[in-house]
Amino acid sequence: MTGQEREFTSTGVPAWKSPFALSLALHLLIAGVALAGWSWSSAIQEPPPNSVSARLITQQKPEPSPVVEPVDQPVDQPVDQPDREEEQKELEKQKQAQAQKRQKEEEARKAAEQKKREDAKQKAEEQKREQAKAEERKVEKTRKEEAARQKAEAEAKERERRKAEAEKKQEEAKRKAEEEKRRQEEQRKREEAERKKQEEQARKEAERKRLDAERKLQEKQLEAQADQARKARAEEAQRRKQAAAAKARESQMLSESQKYQALIRERLSQAWYPPSSATEEMTARLQITLLPTGELAGVKLVASSGNTAFDNSALGAVKSLSRYPVPSERDTFETYFRQFTIEFNPRRLR
Amino acid sequence: MIQRISFTLSKMVFAAAALMLVAATSVQAELLIRITEGADSAIPVSVVPFSESGNMPAGDKLSSIVQADLAMSGEFRPLPPEKMLSLPSKRSDVYFRDWRLLGQRYVLVGELTRNGDRVQARYELFDVNREERILGETAAAPASNIRSLAHHVSDKVYEAITGVPGAFSTKLAYVTLDRTSGQPRYRLQVSDIDGKRARVRLESKEPILSPAWSPDGKKLAYVSFESGKPAIFIHELNSGQRTKVADFPGLNSAPTWSSDGQSLLMTLSKDGNAEIYQMNLQSRKVTKLTNHWAIDTEAAWDSNDDGIFFTSDRSGGPQIYYMAKPGAEPRRITFGSRYNARPRPDSKGDYVYYVHQRDGAFLIARTNLKNDEETVLTRTESDESPSVSPNGRMLIYATKQSGKSVLTVISADGGAAYSLPASEGDVRDPAWGPIVR
Amino acid sequence: MKLSAQTKVIALLFSVGLFAGCSTTGESMDDGGYDSDVAPIDQDQGSTVYGGSDQGGISSSSMTEEERMEIQQQAELEALREITTFYFDFDTSEIKPEARDVLMAHARYLSSNPSQNVRLEGHGDERGSKEYNLAIGERRANAVQRFLVVNGASRGQMETVSYGEEKPAVMGSSESAWAQNRRVELVFE
Questions:
Q1: Is B147 left (phi over 0), alpha (psi -120 to 50) or beta?
Q2: What CA–CA distance (Å, rounded) separates C3 from C98?
């Protein structure tokens, strides 16, 4: 949290009153509340509308790592380190001094021994030389070690620094992601609220319209009924008049049709050659469709006599007439002769 | 919108109701025309001369034989070829309109091809009004046997149109009497149904009567007076072998076969007067079936071989009687005139044909066995010996024409008559042979 | 038996009539066609003269009345027996009255000549059915046979056969032809 605050500050957004701040404060508040509730409620695992804040909590909680320890300053490097580093250096120095001390003591011992053993001329020189060499070596070695150590320390410091940076970045990224999520959730919430509002509006509107329509319908129906009643009365009168006329026409058509029926019967009888195996039990029925000219438009066997030769003789007879005698009055034709049935059934076999 | 829908709906309901009302009335008024009678005349048919490839044997053309067969049946009226507008030999050349103009109902076309010693006929029969082919076949026969091929075509054409098998390939047996050389000469002959290819099977100076075909078409039974009195013989046609089977004292006459070919009905008077007997051909034993002082003769089995029709004058004059079983009490069948004789039932049991006297003339009549209705079939005057074709559709009988006895074929319901040309003297006693597969 | 002159004349007339019926001119049997060489003679109770060159009365030796009668009788019977064909009406085998005397003569002759055999051939006219006509011919022959037997002939002398319509005596399709064909013929062997 500290980091966040620092971050917050370093971005330079000053006002506490910015929406982000507000939202952050809010979130912190919720976080606090939710934290309190976290330990005994498992329902939080479901995604309720405020799961956003819950998730924030879980993300925030287990990260103590953003605490970054300061790195010791290396010896050769310019001191521009924070106090922490100096302390570290001090420690290191101490360690080094101690090490040096020890080493020196050792060497002194050795030198003393040497001296003791070789008292002679060479011993001093040798000792000196050796000492010098040794010292050189030591210095060198120390230098090297020091260098190595410093390098190591620098590397370590560097590593630490990088680690800290990385962690910082990570934290930042996490924070950003959390913020983003928060933002999105807010967006979603807003949109949903909006949608609900609209739905509600639409529903209300539809309801209003329906009621409106119903009302209008009822009105129209009543109107129509009244209309129909009026019409029915008029039609009744008309119909009665027409019925009388139709009856007259029907009987006229009937007698006309009978005349033409007789003509057709005669023509077909002359054209029909029943096979010699025909019996009085055989009946074939054909459905005929004519054109107003009397021409045959179609013929269909609708009931077979059971005897193919007999059926074929009937079909042949029907098809042999190129023109059927039909009335010229169209309505008589349509009523009786557009489509009719012919039944072939021999009576009076010789 | 809903209000609009309901208004349209109500309109539709109204319209539908109106429509149904109209439909109901029109169904009630739907016309039914009944045709109960057909044309009295024969069916117009065209047998177009077949096209020929290769040498055809000399003699009548196949199509003219077919034409004559169909005319003889009395059921068809063939168009003379000179009246044809075209001479097609296959479907693609048939213009149905032309044949309709000529009033034809059926057209037969075909092609004859000579293949070595065989002739092949490919032919097709068309229904002119329905414009459909109703028969098509290729048949072949030895070139010497073109007449048989023609009769086969006639049989098939007849069957395709009427539904009944044709009887044009059957044979005819009959007796001729030639008096020209002073002495009478009787000849028993077998020919095609049109009289052609006649062959003499027996020649005698004494009368030969009543030839009767065995059911398998291989034998003839007949009465011969060669011994000075009537005796019954069985004559095997292939071998020419003859066997005298009945020569009892008195009459031995009127032989007819049972349908199993195992026995003959015959008239014998050996027991005092003419009675009907049945003879088992294996054992030659006879059983007496009638027992009456009257003349009982001319017996014939009915279509099931159950009962027997015969002539009897037990009521004063000859009438047709029927006994339901051999030996059963006979029942009289004919009542319409005082002379009815020589019953011949058809093979389906529908009718019995016989000689019938009316107003002094002797005609051929038939009785419908279902309703006892009698119909006179001929208009000639001295008719005798009716014999029915095996398909029940034609009848042949003997009649007098210019003093000579000739054979005439009519359709079984008495339609058009067709006289067989008679060359030598009298032709009499025809017997229509069976259909032999 | 004793015949009066009138009866004789009638008998002669009848036999002549029968003969006339057989002629081919087609006249009905009722006409009198006198083609025989027997001429009606006016009878008085005297002898009958039969033609001949001996003219002008013959004084024969006188015979007894009976002898004369017998000769007469014989002659008459012989005359009758000249007739050997008997006719029938259509579809019957009934012997006509006019045939009875003739048949009687035949019967008597047969009975007095037992060795004489005769064949009775029955026929019918061409009309109607052949086989039925065969039976009718037989029935006619049988009828004649029965009559002869009843009147003295013995069955063994006679043989019947029917030819039905197969052997007409007269060709043609007229009533007269038919009438002449419905017959029984006696053929003496």
A1: alpha
A2: 17
**Chain C contact for B355 (CB, 8 A cutoff):** yes
Instruction: Write out residues 79-108 of C within 8 Å (CB-CB) of B.
Output: 91
Kindly determine whether residue B38 and residue A220, on different chains, have CB atoms separated by under 8 Å: no
Q: Are residues B341 and B200 in the same domain?
A: yes
The alpha-carbon gap from B361 to the nearest alpha carbon of chain A, in Å, equals 21
The pTM (predicted TM-score) of the whole model is 0.65
ipTM score of complex:
0.85
Q: Is A96 on the interface with B (CB under 8 A)?
A: no
Pick the residue with more confidence: C81 or A67?
Answer: C81
Q: How many CB atoms lie within 10 A of CB B278?
A: 19
Residue B156 near chain A (CB below 8 Å): no
- Total domains, chain A: 2
What is the C-alpha separation between A319 and B105, in angstroms, rounded?
Answer: 10
The answer to whether C183 and C125 have CB atoms below 8 angstroms apart is no
Task: Inform me whether the C-beta atom of residue B363 falls under 8 Å from chain C C-beta atoms.
Answer: no
Same domain, B158 and B175: no
Domain boundary among B162, B181, B200: B162
Interface check B27 vs A, CB under 8 A:
no
Considering only residues C56 and B356, tell me which one the structure prediction assigns the higher pLDDT.
Answer: B356
**Domain of residue A58, residue span:** 2-111+126-194
CA distances from B430 to B376, B389, B395 (A): 20, 11, 10
Q: Is B32 in contact with A340 (Cβ distance < 8 A)? A: yes
B381 vs B143, higher pLDDT: B143
> Same structural domain for residues C48 and C74?
yes
Looking at residue C51, what is its pLDDT?
43
Q: Is B34 on the interface with A (CB under 8 A)?
A: yes
Q: Which domain holds residue C175?
A: 84-189
Geometric angle at alpha carbon B285, from B281 and B287, rounded to 5°: 110
Point out the domain boundary residue: C65, C82, C99.
Answer: C82
What sign does the CA torsion over A274, A277, A282, A286 have? negative
Residues of A in contact with B39 (CB under 8 A): 269-273
| Interchain contact, A269 vs B37, CB within 8 Å | yes
